[in-house]
Write a structure and sequence with these properties.
Layout lengths: L9 H10 L9 E3 L2 H7 L4 H12 L18 H4 L19 H7 L16 H12 L33 H12 L2 E3 L5 H13 L5 H13 L1 H14 L1 H14 L17 H12 L4 H10 L8 H6 L16 H21 L18 H9 L8 E5 L2 E4 L3 E3 L4 H27 L1 H13 L10 E6 L3 E5 L5 E5 L5 E7 L6 E8 L21 E2 L1 E8 L2 E5 L1 E6 L20 E2 L8 E11 L7 E8 L10 E6 L3 H4 L3 H4 L9 H12 L3 H19 L4 E3 L10 E4 L7 E5 L15
Antiparallel strand pairs: 1-2, 3-4, 5-19, 6-9, 7-8, 9-17, 10-16, 10-18, 11-15, 12-13, 12-17, 14-16, 20-21
Helix pairs in contact: 1-8, 3-6, 8-9, 8-10, 9-10, 11-12, 17-22
Length: 722
């Protein structure tokens, strides 16, 4: 790596360079000699002319593209003749040089460059002066690498300079060469404002400005030092400088593309803020983000830091090939790493050798190999549908939360042990239940006498011999139907409500509202024992139905809420039934008492029954509520393990102790779920490294030469790195 142990205080240096000079105080810059001084200075080819030619000319007149057989990358070509026979550059004579005429004189032909912006007047004047000064073009410059790819060397510094004068020394050299001198000293209030905006992104308060101005009158250096120390100590410092870094890291709280699902990566954002506020050394800052998970005994923070490369977009649209998606993510990591840490763009080399920079396609895929060893970050949910996933890590809980989780796990373990014990205790009862179920394969309903029927609507009522009630005529918006029944001699255990069909009902029913959608919504069912003028409400515990519309389960008909209920939408034109179990069996005296069952239908829009019937049962309720699919299991043959398990689950619903334990277990599990640690996305290496290949024109299905991980060849390398 090429990172020295610099710290994250580089923004401080930028702020300091804006307005601080160790000897002169706060200053600006102004040219006092202007163009005259510049005109007398010697033009440096490498520093001034060569970058200009690269910027404007080498796209068409470089090593790879030689329009008009002209290369402006080589001294011999540039000082020779064009294909027209006119000298390109005539040293000492800018006015006779084709290079100048083609960028300023339309009569000489199309103005160059053809594919870009024209040169500024300053750039034209610079080329003129260079040519008039003799067009000095060192032989070595034609083959010289761009300065960005040369090894970093520390410049010579005069030994008499103090450590706080070194930067000023180099600035002064360049200012003198350009004839520029300092502006008048900046006012202290402006210094405070610029420092505050630069370091924490917020303007100073009036009091802060006044304090700084007052202290500056005593000592500018001490006032400025105290100002910077205070701003660096502010939590806002990390928040301010984390923003540009998070932009480089392509930070987002969702994964992009069509679904744009939310992803858990805020912990990485907070880590970046902490890193700035804690003045983390820059080499650690970089290493943790690129490979924190690979450090020996990696800490939680080092793993969180790898979220830098979990910010890639992720396409989970149906039909996207997961391998194509994975390769695109690796490509994003390669390109981002090159841009952020190497200061260069590698994208072109994904498909071919770079046309301008010294990077081959093989360089690209060698670099690609460093990042090609992570697992898929999507998972298949169904068919061609994939969901965002990827490696993640649990974030540590606080001390209080950790203790609470431990306590809840202990409670849960005890509850589960108690449940296991209760299951063993009820095993004989379960066997007895199975025998009773085998001896009574179908539910038994007592034929009851309908003593009275009342409706709150204006329907025409017809009582049928089988106990059903046919309702015709006017369709009420909402209605109450009351069935008064003569009770059986044995204790009542359950109530059955049937919604029957009939040709006299629109669409045959069961509902009367409209023929196309004859729905029924039973909002509330209640049961009362009538003894003279006294009424005693009967508690209902649970319910089962042959069918329930989605979000309108039969249990909602006894929840005490008039806005909910049992509905049969989607299953029209056929009869339906629901059974409601009494919390406790009720013995009613048929001589002096009666049973009233009320069907409240309050949804509106005529969602009311057209032919209801109510029956009572004295049979054991646990057998009555058994679903038909489980009842059909009982065939006299030996039950399989899976069949016994299904029946056991149903049996346990009738055991109050087990129900209480299950309820308590569910509550503890839900509380534990609420204390589950939050997660953050991290990078994770596969145990078995993937092979990496050059991809023909960047196509992940067209693999050619195998490559090993390596940085681009143009960069200097540590001889110890293989």
């Amino acid at each position: 790596m090429f990172f020295s142990r610099n710290t994250l205080l580089f923004p401080i240096c930028l702020v300091a360079l804006w307005f601080f000079s160790c000897e002169c105080g706060w200053l600006g810059l102004v040219s006092t000699q202007g163009g005259a001084a510049e005109a007398d200075s010697v033009v440096d080819f490498s520093e001034q002319v060569q970058p200009l030619l690269r910027r404007h000319c080498e796209r068409c007149h470089g090593e790879k593209n030689r329009e008009a057989d002209l290369r402006l990358t080589r001294r011999d070509d540039a000082l020779g003749e064009a294909d027209s026979g006119i000298p390109v550059i005539v040293p000492g004579h800018a006015d006779r040089s084709l290079l100048i005429s083609r960028i300023i004189d339309e009569d000489a032909g199309d103005l160059m460059p053809l594919d870009g912006e024209a040169l500024t007047q300053h750039e034209v004047d610079l080329l003129r002066r260079w040519i008039d000064q003799g067009a000095n073009w060192p032989e070595s410059s034609s083959e010289k690498k761009h300065w960005a790819y040369e090894p970093i060397k520390r410049p010579d510094v005069p030994t008499n300079l103090g450590k706080d004068q070194v930067i000023d020394h180099f600035l002064d050299q360049q200012l003198a060469a350009r004839g520029i001198m300092a502006n008048a000293r900046m006012q202290p209030a402006s210094v405070a404002r610029r420092a505050s905006l630069g370091l924490i992104g917020l303007p100073p308060t009036p009091d802060e400005i006044n304090r700084f101005v007052d202290s500056s009158r005593v000592s500018q250096r001490e006032a400025y030092s105290n100002l910077i120390d205070r701003l660096l100590a502010s939590p806002r410092y990390g928040e301010r400088w984390a923003v540009p870094w998070l932009d480089l890291a392509r930070y987002a709280d969702s994964n992009g593309f069509q679904a744009d699902q939310i992803r858990d990566n805020w912990a990485y954002r907070d880590w970046v803020i902490r890193a700035f506020n804690q003045d983390m050394p820059f080499d650690e800052f970089v290493t943790d983000q690129l490979a924190g998970d690979l450090r020996p005994d990696a800490t939680v923070d080092q793993k969180i830091a790898t979220g830098f490369h979990r910010m890639t977009t992720c396409n989970v649209e149906a039909g996207v090939h997961p391998e194509a998606n994975r390769v695109n993510q690796v490509v994003d990591r390669v390109n981002t790493t090159a841009t952020v840490f190497l200061g260069t763009t590698l994208e072109c080399a994904q498909c071919h050798d770079h046309k301008y920079d010294p990077f081959s396609q093989k360089d690209y895929y060698r670099f690609f190999a460093y990042f090609n060893n992570t697992p898929l970050e999507v998972k298949q949910t169904s068919g061609v549908t994939w969901d965002f996933y990827g490696p993640k890590m649990d974030l540590p809980l606080g001390q209080d939360e950790t203790q609470k989780v431990a306590d809840l796990n202990s409670t849960l373990k005890k509850l589960q042990q108690n449940r296991k014990q209760r299951v063993a205790e009820t095993e004989p009862k379960f066997e007895d239940w199975l025998q009773r179920l085998k001896s009574q394969a179908t539910p038994s309903w007592q034929p009851v006498s309908l003593m009275e029927f009342k409706t709150s609507g204006n329907e025409e009522v017809r009582l049928l011999p089988d106990g059903a009630v046919l309702l015709t005529g006017e369709v009420p918006d909402t209605v109450d139907h009351e069935f008064v029944l003569k009770p059986p001699l044995k204790p009542i255990t359950a109530i059955r409500v049937e919604l029957l069909i009939d040709d006299a009902i629109p669409g045959a029913g069961p509902g009367r509202g409209e023929a196309a959608r004859p729905n029924v919504i039973l909002s509330e069912l209640t049961c009362e024992i009538i003894s003279g003028k006294e009424k005693t409400e009967v508690e209902l515990s649970d319910a089962v139905a042959d069918y329930s519309q989605r979000n309108w389960d039969v249990a909602r008909a006894i929840d005490g809420d008039r806005k909910t209920g049992w509905a049969i939408g989607g299953q029209f034109g056929k009869p339906h039934w629901a059974i409601f179990r009494l919390a406790e069996p009720v013995l009613v005296n048929p001589e002096t008492q009666s049973v009233k069952v009320s069907l409240g239908q309050y949804f509106g829009s005529g969602r009311v029954a057209g032919k209801p019937r109510v029956s009572l049962s004295t049979q054991a309720a646990d057998l009555l509520l058994l679903p038909d699919n489980l009842r059909s299991i009982i065939t006299g043959k030996q039950l399989s393990v899976q069949q016994r398990k299904k029946l056991r689950t149903q049996f346990e619903k009738s055991d109050d102790r087990l129900s209480d334990l299950d309820h308590s277990i569910t509550e503890v599990e839900q509380e534990l779920a609420g204390l589950m640690p939050e997660t953050t996305l991290v990078m994770r290496e596969l145990e078995n490294r993937r092979e990496s290949f050059v991809m023909l024109r960047g196509n992940y299905e067209a693999l050619v030469d195998k490559v090993q991980p390596r940085t681009p060849a143009t960069f200097p390398r540590d001889s110890t790195i293989e």
